[in-house]
User: Fold this.
Amino acid sequence: MATAVVHYAAAALTDRGRKRPSNEDAFGYSVEHGVFLVCDGMGGAAAGEIASSVAVDEMLRVLTGRDPGKPLAAEAEKAVAAANQAILSRAKRSNKLTGMGTTLVALLVEERRAWMLNVGDSRGYRLRNSRPGSHLEQITLDHSLVEEQVRMGRMDRAEALRSPLRNVITRALGTQGCVTPDVFELETEPGDIFLLCSDGLTRELSDSLIESLLSAGAPLEELCTRLVAAANQAGGHDNITSLLVRVEA
Assistant:
């Protein structure tokens, strides 16, 4: 029995926001190789911008040049390790870059199979449009101090939103010698929309509002524009990046 070929389409947009002097977010993707990435850098001066760009470039280099005979999930973890080392090596060249790091959220696809992985608090979501009553689902789990407190029952969601420690992340690329991403294996269906984004989007917009915007049925480029515009309208306190991937039959 023949298996239907699955195609993917993507679009992305990043914006400085209304409060930050520069944009330390970065994204990259290759539809041909099934690789989609968003990073949110951190560090003084331009260090965060460098860390996120290095991570995206290194992840793309490794994953677009991978051996197609090897398991994609294993190659993804190899790419994360390479990106981590690339940031550490770059930081050693300049005192101004010491301590720089970046989050990472990635989607890797191979026919009907997909893997989402993350380090830090940049998020990955899936909106399943093929079934009645489907809704936006957060796939990744934030590596942040307050989110881990919420998961352990030591803090509720309202307290997490008010906490002065809500910007503290517990895992990032470039801040330690070895970093392990969380990896989530998924099966895709035609009509699925995946959203990869930095916290500049999710801090400003509720999941229900994001779901409403993504359900509008517009082209991916327009949906990215609407998401970023809504986050800016809600305050735009941080850099905002939205990368959308749609599964097409």
Q: What stands out?
A: The domain at 7-248 is CATH 3.60.40.10 (Phosphatase 2c; domain 1). The longest strand covers residues 7-15.
